[in-house]
Amino acid sequence: MATRAVMFTIGKFRCFPILKNRVAKFTSSSNLLNTSTFDPGYTRDPSEVFFKENVQALLDRLTGRDYEKVFQNRKLGQRLEPPKYELLTQAEVDQVMVEMEVKLKKKLQMPPLLKEREPVTKILSKDAELQGFDNCKYVFIDISQGINDRKREVVVRDPNGVLRDASWEERQKMCQIYFPLPGRQISMPKMFEETHLQDCLDQGQYQFVLDRACAQFEPDDPDYIRVTRKTYNCIDENNKFSTLRSTRHFGPMVLHLVLCKRMDNLLFHFITSKEVKAAADLVRLFHLVWSDSSPSELDEFQLIENYIQGPAVKKPALELAWQTFLEIEKQRLEALSQQNKASN
Amino acid sequence: MIIMASALPTFTKIAKVIRLNRHGCTNRPFYHIVVQKTKDNQDGPVIEQVGSFDAMPNNKNEKLVALNFERIQYWLSQGAKLSDPVAQLLGLSGFLPNHPRTIIQAWKNRREPPRERKIEAIKGIAPPLDNPKL
Predict the structure, then answer these.
(1) What is the mean pLDDT of each run of 10 residues along chain A (344 residues)?
(2) pTM, rounded to two decimals
């Protein structure tokens, strides 16, 4: 289940034993081979890049459209139904395909990459005369219908008489109690704590972790960012890109890797699986993100070569893979031309 | 049988009031903030529920109050009265000014701590019970 609602209501996480891990210490790891999970990799605001139309188009193309994978029956605790077989005319089939396309777009909607949200500091009133009226705080939520959870009024009256806007943790908890979203728990599931998260990732449960993170957190929640970045880095280290292909998480992962300048493994993966278009799209994305301009070369092969010669980090491996690919291509073209001559 | 009070016809204009209705269990109160006719019983017909108030603090030492401000505003405009506890809650939430009762209670709490009851032992017959409620 764990599919996220289409409307990204932005609302965060409360005091918990995990708090000390959440306040991540952004120090770069001394071990360059194994990037620290708390290393953000970049400081610029990803939302500046994520919402651009050309970036979205590229990410959409890179994600791919494997209908089988997108619509597969996933074991998420819901009742599975056997497939229905219908006899349709061509026109009806086209109609159904159009409807499926709409459904596919909804399933492949990418969760946004945002920077961490700022803590709430607004104080509405300081009433010193109310000090000591009670020894616990009162949390008020406005349960009027038709308000976005982000804009819902949640205020707290502290025992010292201060009336303030609720913190992100208090706000999310209250909204979840009174307006529950499916798939979301009131307190953070233990799965997202460091040790348990590492266990999940070691088992290769990337899509499950990301789907659950999407359901549990808001996109600008520091915990969401921590969990997703750790998952993306894990996938990158283990070269398991195909697990996320044709899912909604592939686009954000690619953008994260490009922003961290860690896209070389992915490029290697594309070249070795002979997906030239995807490799070229990746390089175009790199140029868009880092120099905000589309490269002048129209030829895909040239584009990839220039990248490998230029900004690539893992040059030896990439050059080798590229040369191998070019040779295979040449042989394939020769074989094809000989076939054509023979048939003619 | 639960009767919707709004479905019953009224021939005389009986005042409406927004007050707390005690639900929950023994030793565990939970209040619904409801709009009712004043003459109806606490467990009688309710016109509309406009909120809830959990009087027991949770493990984060918070008391949770849900208030449907839009509907409360409507009923106030229709002439509904507020009971004291509801008025106090609305004052604490910032919707209304601070209720004088809250201010007085706060002052009393600051002046002296709530009195503790002391149970003396009955000599030679029974030791004091540990139950502070007695």
Answers:
(1) 41 40 41 45 87 94 92 86 92 95 94 94 94 94 94 95 95 96 94 95 94 95 96 95 94 95 92 92 91 76 86 88 92 92 86
(2) 0.81
Which tokens in the block code for residue A161?
A: 């008489």
DSSP conformation class of A108: T
- Chain B closest-CA separation from residue A160 CA (Å): 10
Alpha helices (H) along chain A: 19-22, 47-50, 53-63, 67-70, 90-107, 168-178, 194-202, 206-216, 222-238, 250-260, 264-272, 276-291, 300-309, 315-343
Reported ipTM: the value is 0.81
Does B64 sit within 8 Å of A137, measured CB to CB?
Answer: no
Q: Which two tokens stand for residue A89?
A: 């005319």
Residues A141, B65: C-beta atoms closer than 8 Å: yes
CA B89 to chain centre: 9
In terms of DSSP bridges, do strands A154-157 and B48-54 run parallel, antiparallel, or are they unpaired?
Answer: unpaired
A8: Cα separation from own chain's centroid: 13
CA distance B72 to chain A (A): 10
Is B61 in Cβ contact with A137 (below 8 Å)?
A: yes
Chain A residues lying within 8 Å of B68, measured CB to CB: 142-145
Cα dihedral sign, B10-B12-B15-B20? negative
User: Residue B60 corresponds to which tokens in the numbers above?
Assistant: 């984060």
**Environment class of A328 (CB within 10 Å of its CB; exposed 0-12, middle 13-18, buried 19+):** exposed
- What span, in angstroms and rounded, lies between the C-alpha atoms of B70 and A144? 6
Q: Catalogue all structural domains in chain B, each as residue range(s) with its CATH number.
A: 16-123 (3.30.1320.10)
The A residues from 305 to 334 touching B (CB cutoff 8 Å) are none
